[in-house]
Amino acid sequence: MNERLRNVPDLPTHYLTEEQQALADQASKFFFSEFHHLNAEMDDTDDLSPSIFPKLGEMGYLGLNVAPEFGGAGLDFTSACIITEELSRASAAIGLSHAAHDNLCVNNIYRNANDDLRRKYLPGLCDGSLIGALGLTEPGAGSDALGSMRTTARKDGDHYVLNGSKIYITNGPIADIVLVYAKTSPEKGAKGISAFIVETDTPGFKVAQKLNKMGFAARPQASWCSRIAGCRRQTWWASWTAVWQ
Amino acid sequence: MNVQAGPGMAALAAIKANYSLTPEQRQIVDHVDRVAREILHPLQEKMDAEEWWPEDLFRQMGELGLLGITAPEELGGSGQNEFTQALVSETISKWNPAVGLSHGAHDNLCLNNILRNGSDEQVRKYVPGLCSGELVGALGLTEPGAGSDALGSMATSAVRDGNDYVINGSKIYITNGPIADVILVYTKTDKAKGAKGISAFIVETDNPGFKVAQKLDKMGFRGSPTGELVFEDCRVPASAMIGAENSGVSVVMSGLDLERAMVASVCVGMAERALELALDYARIREQFGKPIASFQMVQSKLAEIYVEVETARAFGYRALAACVGLPKGAGGRGEIHKLTAAACLYAGEAFNKAVTEACHIHGGSGYMQDTEINRLYRANKLLEIGAGTSEVRKIIIAEELLRA
Ligand SMILES: Cc1cc2nc3c(=O)[nH]c(=O)nc-3n(C[C@H](O)[C@H](O)[C@H](O)COP(=O)(O)OP(=O)(O)OC[C@H]3O[C@@H](n4cnc5c(N)ncnc54)[C@H](O)[C@@H]3O)c2cc1C
Ligand SMILES: Cc1cc2nc3c(=O)[nH]c(=O)nc-3n(C[C@H](O)[C@H](O)[C@H](O)COP(=O)(O)OP(=O)(O)OC[C@H]3O[C@@H](n4cnc5c(N)ncnc54)[C@H](O)[C@@H]3O)c2cc1C
Hints:
heterodimer; A: alpha+beta; Butyryl-Coa Dehydrogenase, subunit A, domain 1; Butyryl-CoA Dehydrogenase, subunit A, domain 2; three-stranded antiparallel sheet; 16% strand; globular; B: alpha+beta; Butyryl-CoA Dehydrogenase, subunit A, domain 3; 12 helices; 15% strand; binds flavin-adenine dinucleotide
């Protein structure tokens, strides 16, 4: 794969270290033998086989940037990108589902959540028993995701109650955990946004529909209105602030 | 929502009016626009989702006067020229690209070819049925091993046997193949003579030697049935041959010139629809508290799409004007060959750019399969492939330019 570049002595191999190159070669071999042949069927059925996330977890390809104490691979960011690249080369659809899980959801939790939340969710997200997603975009809020965001989280005792909908959410239909952005102080605009971890078996959450895309089939992707009406979360779960604050 | 004549639509109509269409042409376009919008447009969704062709649609099109545009009125046609046929193609394709494609294969590739090159007897036998939609037509040139080099690599053969010819071989990517009653098929009658050894036959699909090997699953133009066809000792009478033996190349080549002019019009209709959809969406969709149409970067795209539509139209109409009155057997070389290839090349690429930008203006919704803009976007690629790929079109243009 990267052989060609390596064989030209004057060209640096994108400045990969020996270890990163070895990681890329090993990942490429595994992804091609395990996943490449699934592409045609995934494109037909638009379904992601339930065995894929556990398999990725078993091989150490989940929680790429997460420290080993939480079950992750403890890799640097460049190495995580190399693995994403190799996975997408073998299967674009799995590559994107993996990225939504591992970068958008898992790495976000790892970087921003408190230790209780990290201990609660990261091990499952790293071994593939939990699937993650990130919900930012809404029917009325895409490019202007922050300004036009309508999903709200209202404090009610030691809970927050979320109302609103998110759309085009990769992994939405199969996710166990969704990192959701919601307005806690709508009057403060972008500064009034908070991030919550929502477990999808919470009453009040539903997948309105699985969307029919033209590409990346098998990247299960929700949903013109994954309604999160009245989702109750304990306050301590939501005790961390939005990433951009 | 998008059929109301907002300023954008009115401007488009005014531009079209400037092409000095005759009152009759304008009447025909108005009629086709209305029926295509009312009857064909609503069929898009199911056709696309299921690769579904409505069973009696050709008959219905016949009743609506959409078939046999170039056929004489006494045979059931409209007695119009190829320019008008292209206007019809453009308008149908705008409202339902898949129907536009099937209509073009039937009306231009099959019916018009028989009309131009068939004997009186053949014309009388097939044209009335093709005009009423009782018969569905197709054209079979491409083979698994013969695409861009359709003539040189053609392997399908027809061998004389008494008063019959026996056809063996296969054809692929044939529009209407799975539903056709009548197929104009090109075969080699003299392999030693290469392109000069080709003959054209009219094959009726109830012939026991004919079969549809498979209906193909496409990314765009879904609903227009595309097939792989097999001829196995398919015995046809000598009277099924169009023109003289080994004279097929002139039928192919002149037919392809007209086809390319038609394809340019298909592109124009679809690009115009992409512009309308983009305009509508840009006006309605709000982000940052304003319609996205108010952002200059979106406006820039709209302007560019508009330019693609109108330049493709101007060039396409010019090529079509040159096709009118093209003598039987002419074409396949010279000015008309170059001009139609150039208009087709330009229109295919213009539509590609236009629909890519129009889809982009739709943001995430443009990526979802069940939106009209996404259907147009997926239809895109074929227009740079069918009737000769962009490269083949360039080869033709350069050959003609360099011919001393
Ligand atoms: C397959 C798929 C998977 C996705 N996965 C996720 C996910 O996991 N999580 C998630 O939160 N989101 C996800 N998204 C959503 C994605 O991030 C949004 O679609 C994207 O941000 C665009 O938003 P929009 O679709 O609302 O388009 P809009 O914001 O409505 O944009 C429409 C058009 O207007 C243009 N535009 C808007 N504002 C301006 C401006 N000020 N100046 C110039 N042009 C402008 C845009 O560039 C675009 O061309 C996904 C989308 C798709 C299609
Ligand atoms: C939906 C659909 C409907 C169709 N309907 C019909 C129909 O009704 N009847 C019919 O007969 N055919 C039909 N076709 C076939 C179509 O005309 C061919 O697909 C087309 O001519 C290209 O041939 P090919 O697919 O064999 O590609 P190839 O000829 O194999 O070309 C592959 C690539 O190589 C390039 N290439 C080839 N030769 C050269 C060269 N000398 N220089 C530079 N580049 C070159 C081409 O441009 C192309 O990019 C249809 C096709 C499709 C997809």
